[in-house]
Design a protein that fits this description.
This protein is an alpha+beta fold and about 150 residues long. It is built from six helices and five strands.
Length: about 150
């Protein structure tokens, strides 16, 4: 059976819950990622933040923004920039989702696939027996690795 540990990314980008939205955005942009696990001081998983969570936080009433990292056509674009600059020092703890799912490195890959599909998540944290983040599985990386390992595509 294929295990989560065989497909997970071990070099995980994450933020601590007391880091700011500015830190989160810097990490997203620098590493070209769309979400990260949020941990406490002991590296225990306490939440997740995605680009969608950030957008909902800075623009909660408007449904016209699709992606924080692309050029967005928004009728009130200046309002959006002002909202972001006013909230840039907000802690990750205030923005993160706390109802999260995770898997263990020893779980069967099927479990991760089911969670990703059922909940429409882009990323799934991988935690050890102490609930510490040891990896992450993303939909895109999972499909790429599956294609490479199973179908032998190069």
């Amino acid at each position: 059976m294929m295990k989560v540990k065989d497909f997970m990314i071990q070099q995980v980008h994450k933020v601590q819950q007391d880091q700011t939205l500015k830190d989160v955005l810097r990490l997203f942009i620098h590493h070209r990622i769309s979400g990260v696990p949020v941990t406490d001081a002991n590296n225990k998983l306490v939440g997740m933040i995605s680009d969608g969570d950030v957008l909902r936080y800075i623009n909660p009433q408007k449904q016209t923004v699709y992606d924080v990292f692309s050029y967005v056509i928004v009728t009130e674009q200046e309002e959006l920039v002002e909202a972001l600059s006013n909230r840039i020092n907000t802690s990750a703890k205030k923005i993160m989702k706390t109802k999260i799912h995770s898997v263990s490195p020893e779980d069967e890959l099927e479990k991760a696939l089911q969670i990703l599909a059922k909940h429409h998540f882009k990323k799934l944290p991988v935690v050890n027996e102490h609930k510490q983040v040891v990896g992450v599985i993303s939909r895109g990386d999972l499909l790429k690795q599956m294609a490479t390992k199973i179908i032998n595509l190069d």
